[in-house]
Amino acid sequence: MTERSPRRDHGMTEFAHQPVMRDEVVAAFAEVPAGTVVDATLGGGGHSEALLDARPDVAVLGIDRDRDALEAASRRLDRFGARVTVSHRRFDELAEVLEEAELETVSGALFDLGVSSPQLDHADRGFSYQQEGPLDMRMDTTAPCSADDVVNGYDEAHLATVLRRYGDERFARRIAAAIVGARPIETTTELAAVVTSAIPAPARRRGGHPAKRSFQAIRIEVNAELSALPGALDAAIDATTPGGRVAVLSYHSGEDRIVKDRFRQATGACDCPPDLPCVCGAVQTVRIVRGIPRRPSDAEVITNRRAASARLRVVERLATAPAEPAPGEPAQEGAR
Prior knowledge:
The chain is α/β, with parallel strands linked by helices and 336 residues long. The protein has 2 domains: 22-112 and 225-266 and 286-317, 3-Layer(aba) Sandwich (Rossmann fold); 121-223, DNA polymerase, domain 1, CATH 1.10.150.170. The protein contains 14 helices and 7 strands.
């Protein structure tokens, strides 16, 4: 099912990729069974390259919605030959991709969420508030909805909700009003200036660029990033063979909350009242490999500042739900 996309010339001739927490990701999959690992956000292929080098008995099925990323990753991973298959799909189509590849189970899955450095660095993609570009922000440039539709099309209340929900933006209402009042907005730098002007001067001097949260929120809305995540994680867990692992790199609180919740549900966590029998049907299918998410080292953050907010969570698939702990033994994390 290898899909090789044709070279496209719109200014992105390179897709340099510095994989975040590469060594920690490789370690997470060091002892999974031989077989196929799904890289559900293939990007430039950096994580997959490291994994394929470390595990000669593993193949990679790479998924990405960005054709430029797939093209670059295909070149980077070409030396591994038939051990690599790529597919131009969204990660919430994981079940369909596995069916097409005739894979009933996989050895694991990796999700590296959010926007990639090459997408930010190329102004023509419209992700950056620091470089002038079109209001695009689509990870899949064939998708119908772009940042222009959000910025120039949403009503003020809807826009404020997006900014607050996906950007944790304190000044969402003020920013939404300013955007609506400045329409039509045509470029990323114009949008960044409007957002900045709507934020009180004292707040502009704290927490990085004033437009950072708004751009994040609009990007998440355009690409439906958070709504696609829960089902994709569930599908990955369902497809993973016992002893295999699912690892997720998240970069902001909205992503991390979803990952933490889906992993917690898979541990069999029960929300029924503790003094009553369980009626919710909770079943444990994974164990949490480490209760506290791993963070990048100080040395990595110095060399790659975009790694600073990363959190790595990992779960391991179980064959069956474990027996009840013996008296005096701690319960499995996530169980009631």
